[in-house]
Amino acid sequence: MRTLDDLDVKGRRVLVRADLNVPLDGETITDDGRIRASVPTIKTLVERGAKVVVCAHLGRPKGQVNPKYSLKPVATRLGELLGQDVAFATDVVGDSAVSTVEALQDGQVALLENLRYEPGEESKDDAVRGEFAAKLAGLAELYVGDGFGAVHRKHASVYDVPRLLPHAAGGLVVAEVEVLRKLTEDTERPYVVVLGGAKVSDKLGVIANLLTKVDRLLIGGGMAYTFLKAQGHEVGKSLLQEDQLDQVRGFLDEAKRRGVELVLPVDVLAAVTYAPDAEHDVVEATAIPAEREGLDIGPKTRELFAAKLADAKTVFWNGPMGVFEFDAFSGGTKAVAQALIDADAFTVVGGGDSAAAVRKLGLPEDGFSHISTGGGASLEYLEGKTLPGLAALED
Ligand code: 3PG
């Protein structure tokens, strides 16, 4: 993969595909981790005298202009972090984009409006995507792929534009790939993976693949209830994906067959309703009352998971252990994060939610070997899939 050092950017318009998909509360950015992660590449280009045109998506506006998903607040935050103005184009490839880019001087930065306002960005039709990609590529002379969180998407800005312009991978993509490669080759053992988050269906591919690689798989969060149910336990009103039960039973059998230790919660915080102040009790994970739902792993599980992480040499963690956005149900996620910090291991946190949880819970980011900006992207990388955005950069 070519890197920034392989491009002569001085005085040239460089289109940077970043992942600036940050959580917003109205116009307030609640976690700016992805913006901060994008700064080094943009800064390098600025210092080398490029005219930097940043493009990115926010949320899923599905090809429609929707002010709720405007990147305007991101432009402001990016400017603060860079310590210089970031010009904002109010469209993606229209008049505003063209005039904003034309006005750029060497070392200046512009951000285009949300790529996903344009139906061409995500179209499955190669011709439609190609047409939009040509317009986007027309704004610049060079392309830098730095949006690691989006490299698993076969989208115009990720997959097609690098085919139209001389290109290189940005520093973030290079760093992410280097770390994730370490999790797939010559992994130091014991190799322990902790998976959480709401949906088991999002993780089917990665679980199947991990069962061939890891020594231990710890499952928490919303997806654990489908595993508990597959073992024949009652899970009350907890999150459950009935349609995944057969597949999950298959995973339980496969883990046994391969000698992979698959560890599930032994107790949970069972609440009467899904609310920050919901009345709740600690109950056995195998006997969740019919009217209750599990919103976090319980104290015995926190100890168990910490013990299973204590001797690990390599750890990958994706997905919160409970509803960490509610203080009362954030303890399990915090305990797992702390166990990673305490482990004498190579520790990687993958996924927007887990990374946001680390920051929200006030844990030191430098307590981990690496916090990936990619959620789906890091999982698909570990699954061993070819990621369209990386393939395009390697071409
Ligand atoms: C992410 O949030 O994981 C990336 O920004 C990709 O977003 P997407 O899942 O909406 O494609």
From TrEMBL:
Q: Check the record and name the PANTHER family matching this protein.
A: PHOSPHOGLYCERATE KINASE, PHOSPHOGLYCERATE KINASE 1, CHLOROPLASTIC-RELATED
Q: What is the lineage of its organism?
A: Bacteria, Bacillati, Actinomycetota, Actinomycetes, Streptosporangiales
Q: Which GO terms describe its molecular function?
A: kinase activity
Report residues binding substrate.
19-21, 34, 57-60, 116, 153
Q: Which family does it belong to?
A: Belongs to the phosphoglycerate kinase family.
Where does the record place it?
Answer: Cytoplasm
EC code: 2.7.2.3
Q: How does it assemble?
A: Monomer.
Per the record, the major location class is: cytoplasm
**Encoded by which gene?**
pgk
Family matches, as InterPro entries = Phosphoglycerate_kinase (IPR001576), Phosphoglycerate_kinase_CS (IPR015911), Phosphoglycerate_kinase_N (IPR015824), Phosphoglycerate_kinase_sf (IPR036043)
Q: Which reaction does it catalyse?
A: (2R)-3-phosphoglycerate + ATP = (2R)-3-phospho-glyceroyl phosphate + ADP
Name assigned to this protein: Phosphoglycerate kinase
Q: Which UniProt keywords apply?
A: ATP-binding, Cytoplasm, Glycolysis, Kinase, Nucleotide-binding, Transferase
Give, as in the UniProt entry, the pathway in which the protein acts: Carbohydrate degradation; glycolysis; pyruvate from D-glyceraldehyde 3-phosphate: step 2/5
This protein's species is: Nonomuraea composti
Q: Binding of ATP: at which residues?
A: 203, 294, 325, 351-354
